[in-house]
Amino acid sequence: MIEGLDGAGKRTLATGLTEALNAEGRTVASHAFPRYGISVHADLVRDALYGKIGDLSDSVYGMAVLYALDRRGAADEIRKDLEEHDVVLLDRYVASNAAYNAARLHQDEHGEFVEWVRELEIERFGLPVPDLHLLLRVPVEVAAERAAKREQDDDARARDIYESDGGLQARCGVVYDGLANIGWLAPWQVVDGRSNVNFRSLLGPLFTP
After folding, report:
1. What confidence score (pLDDT) does residue 206 get?
2. Which residues touch 130 (CB under 8 Å, ≥6 apart)?
3. Domain with 187 in it: what CATH number?
4. Confidence (pTM)
5. How far apart are CA 129 and CA 132, in angstroms?
6. Is the pLDDT of residue 10 over 80?
7. pLDDT at 187 (0 to 100)
């Protein structure tokens, strides 16, 4: 599972890891959440994040349920991929829901919201438990600059209300660090996203029992 702030470079990391794994003869399946254009729940999330569904985005729990339902809709496909491929890479997963929405509530990794997300997505919805999280850590300022450049280069990728909220991004980074420190749901490997990543160096943790 690849986690990190908006603009951290998760897509680049996923692409680089896929190429490195393929070069080692490993088969890889990948998914990115939210699944815009695929899942109705993801599309509702997108509409809410761009102010198209009234005050829905104000509801932390309402948004969290939509994110969770998007993943629940992909659960069978993920389980199938786990059976058929050596590695399944997910760009955002349950930890994103925990980190972002705990940050919105000004809670930390020990707060009640993080536990609520675990109970909802893992226990109630039965989503597969991850084997490893890769936390792509970058300073908030760097992530914001990258997100702004992405927006400038691609009209279709305008920043949403979460991406535009520097305070939220900063709090989210703190929650992510906390989740990594306690090994929430699975082991965490922190990757420095400020410089070029050595993708091959990450292959070891991916296959460590």
Report:
1. 67
2. 1, 90, 93, 94, 95, 185, 186
3. 3.40.50.300
4. 0.89
5. 9
6. yes
7. 96
